[in-house]
Amino acid sequence: METSSPETCLIAIVQAQDAEVAEDALEEIGMSVTRLPSAGGFLGRRNATLLIALPPHLKDAAIRSLQKTCRQRVEYIAVPLESAPLPLPAPTPITIGGATVFALEVDHFEEI
């Protein structure tokens, strides 16, 4: 069945703990969302990739919704000290989370 095409697709990578809240908030404002499990490349943490179909005039609303629901966090990773006689790990703070969002123009899609 051929359908009319949304003109924009957002791909948002969010932390797994933010995915459900983000998906619910987007659906509340009328967005069509598909969630795919994914994993981060740096720390290997669980993420979710949200595919969001929407008309172009709603892109800013979708991004604002993601900003409200996907928060950044500070976590600590163990990094070995180079000058230590033994490999002692030193806790190093890193900021993770938020959302990484890609916007794509969609020419056509079909639901079969």
Task: Explain what you see.
This protein has 112 residues and is α+β, with helices and mostly antiparallel strands. The chain has one domain: Alpha-Beta Plaits (2-Layer Sandwich), CATH 3.30.70.120. It is built from 2 helices and 6 strands, in the order βαββαβββ. The protein has helices spanning 16-28, 59-69; strands at residues 8-15, 32-39, 46-54, 72-80, 89-97, 99-105. The strands form 2 sheets. The protein has a 4-stranded antiparallel sheet with strand order 2-3-1-6. It has a two-stranded antiparallel sheet with strand order 4-5. Strand 2 and strand 3 (46-54) form a beta hairpin. Helix 1 (16-28) crosses helix 2 (59-69). The longest helix is centred in the N-terminal third of the chain and has 13 residues, at 16-28. The chain is elongated.
Write the layout of secondary structure elements.
Elements: E1 8-15, H1 16-28, E2 32-39, E3 46-54, H2 59-69, E4 72-80, E5 89-97, E6 99-105
